[in-house]
Design brief:
Number of helices: 2
Strand order of the largest sheet: 1-2
Shape: globular
Strand content: 5-15%
Organism: Lyophyllum shimeji (Hon-shimeji)
Bound molecules: zinc ion
Protein name: MYND finger protein
Structural class: alpha+beta
Radius of gyration: 21 Å
Keywords: Metal-binding, Zinc, Zinc-finger
Number of domains: 2
Largest sheet: 2 strands, antiparallel
GO molecular function, one term: zinc ion binding
InterPro entries: Znf_MYND
Length: 81
């Protein structure tokens, strides 16, 4: 399976390609292509991938954490009783 470099249009095996670490939508054959593409245009179109941006939904993350903590504290109380 080959993927085309977003900048130089070279086709390379998927395993050799690097994804843009922010949006995961574009692939590059090398760090040079990534850097050049970023400067040329991608910085204007790049959007942080939702799964990489917990800051866009902090309530969900905090809710999960406090729920987990409350659960373990509760089971501790059960053990003491
Ligand atoms: Zn390239
Ligand atoms: Zn990007």
């Amino acid at each position: 399976m080959t993927v085309t470099c977003y900048f130089c249009n070279k086709d390379l095996p998927n395993s050799q390609m690097k994804h843009c670490a922010r949006c995961l939508l574009v692939t590059y054959c090398s760090k040079e292509c990534q850097t050049l593409s970023w400067k040329a245009s991608h910085k204007q179109s790049c959007r942080i991938h939702p799964s990489f941006a917990p800051s866009t939904d902090p309530k969900t993350v905090n809710g999960r954490w406090s729920f987990g903590r409350r659960n373990s504290r509760h089971s501790g109380l059960v053990l003491h009783a």
